[in-house]
Amino acid sequence: MPLIQYLSRILFDFGAVAGLAGEIDRLGMTRPLLATDEGVAEAGILQRVLDAVRPHDPVVYDGTTENPTEQSLLDCMELWRGRGCDGVIALGGGSPIDLAKAVALLASHGGELADYNVKTAGMEAIGPVAPQIAIPTAAGTGAEVGRACVMTLLDGRKSAAVSLNMVADAVICDPELTLSLPPRLTAATGIDALSHGVETYCSTWVNPPAAAIARDAAARAARWLPVAVAEGQNREARWEMMMAALMGGMCLQKSLGAAHAMANPLGELHLHHGTLIGILLPHVLWFNEAHAGEAIAELGEAMGAGKVPLGDFVSNLVARIGLPDRLGSLGVKGDQLPEIAARAAEDHLSASNPRPASAEDYLGLLKRAL
Amino acid sequence: MPLIQYLSRILFDFGAVAGLAGEIDRLGMTRPLLATDEGVAEAGILQRVLDAVRPHDPVVYDGTTENPTEQSLLDCMELWRGRGCDGVIALGGGSPIDLAKAVALLASHGGELADYNVKTAGMEAIGPVAPQIAIPTAAGTGAEVGRACVMTLLDGRKSAAVSLNMVADAVICDPELTLSLPPRLTAATGIDALSHGVETYCSTWVNPPAAAIARDAAARAARWLPVAVAEGQNREARWEMMMAALMGGMCLQKSLGAAHAMANPLGELHLHHGTLIGILLPHVLWFNEAHAGEAIAELGEAMGAGKVPLGDFVSNLVARIGLPDRLGSLGVKGDQLPEIAARAAEDHLSASNPRPASAEDYLGLLKRAL
């Protein structure tokens, strides 16, 4: 079983869930809480994991919403206390993974989630947290190796807690769990993985190991995402896409750029993150080209773009995997754009975009993408 | 200041030693022990670091030998106890870095080094150790991000202790410290960094993030090592070589291959590790070519070998940087080779070489390299 261990310990291969029981034991969990969502349960993935983990018998919470909420967290904490849990397993996409981090945090530190908002409390407020295991069921966000959890508080505000202490103690990446993911979701999550490689590679932050991982993630996703979308049962494509997503998550410490700076405020309109990224990324590449020519040329070579400009190449890829190319098709209206543009310019991810971008620049990008 | 953080926290740039005092404070050290060697002290590097770290006033041990010994460890432990130390700083190459790990281990766990031999005690015997900071003064081994310490016991045997808990809590990579490294040592350490990229990339272990880092390390070293050797004051070349060495250390978790399997037993003849690697690596590449054709071709492209076979390219590079190409020139005799070959075949690094290699194969390689 390939074991990858930088900050995270990652078991990665077909059948990796067979290693879950061993990780539970290694971390000293006797009564884990498993956080997942209804989609994962309905797809039969939850049952497969519960079968694999015997004789352990996790307490299951399957109410995670697409953008995780403090209400889910409170429900989980009630289960945690009522059932005597001592560790948490996330099974799903970014939402259960974020929720599990919040559970591990409150179970060990007490208080409320807002107490740990990185903007007010900083990262130092968070010490070692309760043990956690992350099991992604899609190949996209790379949240399984993340250090942050973003949740919607009861009053509607968003709150982010960030700490290296919240990195999952073990990650189990089993491409088997993604074989049944439908084409549309494969495309919309996979383009996010590709974008992590592309945007971190172009970001202004200096981090050559992350850049090396980023370029490889982008190349891997460019090659295998169309295959995984067209042939969901193609095991090699699923393995490669799960690896691209993992590597895309590992390189996020090099920061991102303008596409994510716009996707953040747009996401609050309850639009799917990856779908937004697929629409925005080509426009950002065209915008950045004159300011990150060398990085974009290197990416183009690694991704097999040939003589096609990278923005065109990604735009073609987005079309080929069946994703929309217009914000308007998601219901975004022109009069919403100025506020989105203003917030994108203020987003911390905008600062590492290779071409400085003002609110006016973002408005131009958003109008072209509308 | 670029901050790189996978398993290690790395401050990397010209002037990074200015961050040492902050790391000492962050780790709660009040009286650090600084382990280094006479060469580092004579080159004025020790004084530069002591100046940078004020008002901290580390207790200095400068008696580290080229292959660190248990006697050095006992001397350090006496200083540790006598002077009330509470953390350790390694300043130098692989030897002080290994020594510091052993100090951190015994200071926190007690007992003797042999108690923690990975072959008898395993990795589980080692819990969290005393705080450590590693500051490399050459661009080569990548030991600054390592998890092992290898030392010669009082009775002459070697003992290796290995644990993720022994990874340094902070690494400070300041290329400024390498500007005065003479050409021969620049070459002999730098070729080790290059070899880490090459051998890990070709190894049979599956670890794509490590492979991505490895390829980049090999490419970086191929481009910049000849420059750093020819122009020691070239700051860009020194930065790039220190980065290549760091990345070479990060990818070691993908294991190595036949060149290191032979360099290990040859090293016990007190021959310089990097010099050995420079002699052995071309022979290993010629030997592996038919079994790792794709990986070697990808490396060749990344390293700028053009149409030249990679073994020839590395052999030419070794000559160009002034390193010897014959084991005989180091005093190795033909009648020593059978035992070296037998031990290379038993070395754990041989198992991940892309072409299985028997003692007979190693004997052939060693004879060609003699």
What's this model, at a glance?
The structure is a homodimer of 370-residue chains. With 370 residues, chain A is α/β, with parallel strands linked by helices.
How would you describe what is shown here?
The structure is a homodimer of 370-residue chains. Chain A has 370 residues and is of the alpha/beta class. Chain A folds into two domains: 3-176, Rossmann fold (3-Layer(aba) Sandwich); 181-369, Dehydroquinate synthase-like, alpha domain (Up-down Bundle). Helix content of chain A is 49%, strand content 11%. The first copy, chain A, has 15 helices and nine strands. Chain A has helices at residues 20-26, 38-42, 45-53, 70-83, 94-109, 118-121, 183-202, 208-230, 235-250, 258-267, 273-288, 293-303, 310-320, 337-346, 359-369; strands spanning 3-5, 9-12, 32-35, 59-61, 87-92, 132-136, 148-152, 158-162, 170-173. The first copy, chain A, has a seven-stranded mixed β-sheet with strand order 1-2-9-6-5-3-4, with helices on both faces. In chain A, helix 7 (183-202) runs parallel beside helix 11 (273-288) and helix 8 packs across helix 12. The longest helix of chain A has 23 residues, at 208-230. In chain A, 55% of the residues are buried. The A-B interface holds A 2, 4-7, 12-13, 164, 205-213, 215-216, 220, 243, 246-247, 250, 253 and B 2, 4-7, 12-13, 164, 205-213, 215-216, 220, 243, 246-247, 250, 253.
Question: How is the main sheet of chain A built?
Answer: 7 strands, mixed
What's the rounded overall pLDDT mean of chain A? 95
SSE order of chain A: EEHEHHEHEHHEEEEHHHHHHHHH
CATH homologous superfamily placement of the largest domain in chain A: Dehydroquinate synthase-like - alpha domain
What spatial order of strands do you see in the largest sheet of chain A? 1-2-9-6-5-3-4
Tell me the name of the CATH class of the largest domain in chain A.
Mainly Alpha
| Regions with little confidence, pLDDT below 50 for 5+ residues of chain A | none
Structural class of chain A: alpha/beta
Beta strands of chain A, count: 9
Shape, principal axes of CA atoms of chain A: globular
